[in-house]
Amino acid sequence: MSTGTALADPLFRLGWEEWVALPGLGLPAMKAKVDTGARTSALHAFDIEPFGPASRPRVRFAVHPIPGREDLSIPCSAEIVDRREVTSSNGDSEWRFVIRSEIEVGNRRWPIDLTLTHRGGMAYRMLLGRQALGEDVIVSPVDSFCQPRLSYEVYHTDEVRQVAPARVLRIAVLSREPHTYSTTRLVAEGEARGHVVEVIDTARCYMALDALTPEVHYDGTRLPRYDAIIPRIGASVTSYGTAVIRQFETIGTYCVNGSDGITASRDKLHAHQILARHRIGMPTTAFAASPKDTGNLISLVGGAPLIVKLLESTQGKGVVLAETKKAAESVISAFRGLKASFLVQHFIKEAAGEDIRCLVVGSRVVAAMKRTGAEGDFRSNLHQGGHAVPVRITRDEREMAIRAARAFRLNLAGVDLLRSADGPKVLEVNSSPGLEGIEKATGKNIVGLLYDEIEKRVRPVPVPKARRRK
């Protein structure tokens, strides 16, 4: 395919309407009206929104490439090259963003400037003005489609994925800790890929609940549309944080981890019930609310030694090893005295203070590390002084980790496994796993793999053909 120099070829003929493509915007086929009476070219778009830094402003918008098919929407983004006042044929003026994109017509391809305007109901999604036409172009006002025809069928096949360009995304990281390793890595990796990544303090969000126009506001301003939300919800704000995520889900924003999965994973009782429902192996676990059930509670998990866990414990805090029955009774009594909710769990002695953290992104385990507790500590959490090394996991461990993440419908999960005498057991599913330990232990770019998943999820997908009306 030739580039702009091809316009030097003699007598390139166009009709008053032609099939065109804008490959740089992911639009492989559109009908355009060729109008020599119009100075500028225009693309009929909607949801037009500027974003990005002032030094390199960009605009995002969407296009319905097939007239009458509003179920097919192609999201696009481009650099802003100008903002221009345009007067239409009926005398109305408006300020429009101007972008630059390559147009492909027949066997030619060259760059043109396009203004963006929302004019619903137009029969042609693009207007080709005289500025976009070279001196060697002849426009015949009585002919149609002098150049080869294209087809809208491309939007109903997987080819639409192949032609979609690497689109700049606007992404929000929900985090109350903007300077932690995980948050700064998410921002740096996203910006390195050309995306616009913003850190939003979860606690400073508030919501407008409306059946027609639900919104999320922040510091007095309605938040813009985001292509994706990456939740980093701390345990202290789980309830409010998941409410904010639910609001984004209501709007239709892609959330890496959904509110239901985060809520379930934070409540250890609920989490173990989900694991049991999906027949995923875990240490024998018991729960009771009445102090009269202490003896039965201990016997249900095989007696001492056993583990006592607060239902909302994190990073190894609120987890106690009771080595004897008397110690177990004392710990349980103390927790009940504090009116704390807890569960008891069989202690897998053969794990020897080690566990395996499997990091699941999408539908695969992308990294795994073995964590070993500090000297004399049965807990292997890195926050409690443990250390980590990369580990090769078995097929059963890999499949169990994927099944566990899928049970909670999480696209980013840290699944902790114990190696017991009768196979791997899931200890915990973390919906906001720390990224520092596993990236440094394995040397893998975990955040990059997460962005691969996000980019795959938000790209345009083929839509079925509209049913013909009888």
Could you please describe the fold and organization of this structure?
With 470 residues, the chain is of the alpha+beta class. It has a domain at 4-163: Cathepsin D, subunit A, domain 1. The chain contains ten helices and 27 strands. The longest helix is centred in the middle third of the chain and has 14 residues, at 238-251. Mean pLDDT is 87; it is low at 1-9.
Task: Label this structure with key terms.
470 residues, alpha+beta, 9-stranded mixed beta sheet, disordered N terminus
Average predicted local confidence, pLDDT: 87
CATH H-level homologous superfamily name of the domain at 4-163: Acid Proteases
Helix content: 10-25%
| Structural class by sheet pairing and helices | alpha+beta
Q: Give the C-alpha Rg.
A: 29 Å
User: How many individual β-strands?
Assistant: 27
The appropriate CATH architecture of the domain at 4-163 is Beta Barrel
- Separation, N- and C-terminal Cα atoms: 42 Å
- The order of strands across the largest sheet is 2-3-10-4-9-8-7-6-5
How large is the share of residues in beta strands? 25-35%
Apparent shape? elongated
Write the layout of secondary structure elements.
Elements: E1 12-15, E2 17-22, E3 27-34, E4 41-44, E5 46-51, E6 58-63, E7 74-87, E8 93-105, E9 108-117, E10 126-128, E11 137-140, H1 159-163, E12 170-174, H2 181-192, E13 196-200, E14 205-208, E15 215-218, E16 221-222, E17 228-231, H3 238-251, E18 254-255, H4 259-266, H5 268-277, E19 285-286, H6 294-300, E20 306-310, E21 319-322, H7 325-337, E22 342-346, E23 354-361, E24 364-372, E25 387-390, H8 395-407, E26 412-420, E27 423-430, H9 436-442, H10 446-458
Helix pairs in contact: 3-4
